[in-house]
Amino acid sequence: MVATAILDPVDVDVHAANGTRINVLGVMKLRFTIEGMVFTADLLVSEDVQELMLGYDWLVAQRARWHFDERVLVVRGKAIPLKVRRSRASVR
After folding, report:
1. In terms of pTM, does the model score above 0.90?
2. What's the pLDDT tens digit per position in 34-74?
C-alpha cells in the first residue's frame, strides 16, 4: 500500500482475535489526516492485514472518546462519524 515505505525491524508477536499469528514485516511512522486534522502513528506492517488499524495506545494518546451508540469517535473535540460496513471476519 505504501511502496516507498522504509520499514524498521521490530521483534513482536502479533495474533488476531481468533489466535491466528500475524506475520509482521516491520514498523513505520505514518503521517495521515482525519477530517483535516494531522496525526502520526507508528504502524506495524503486515501482508496479512489490508487496512489501517489504530490501537488502544494510540486512541488513549489522542484522548479519543468512542461513542458506540452514536457511531462517533471524538478526537481533539471533533466528532468523526464512523462508517458501517459488512465484516470480513478473517485474516489472510
Report:
1. no
2. 999 999 999 999 998 888 889 999 999 999 999 999 999 99
Grid cell in block for residue 89: 471476519
Closest CA to 28 of 51, 54, 55, 9: 9
Which parts of the chain are beta strand (E)?
14-15, 21-22, 26-34, 37-45, 65-67, 72-75, 78-81
Grid cell locating 82: 464512523
Q: What would the pLDDT profile of 3-17 be if each residue is shown by its tens digit?
A: 788 899 999 999 988
The CA distances from residue 17 to 9, 10, 20, 77, in Å, are: 24, 21, 7, 30
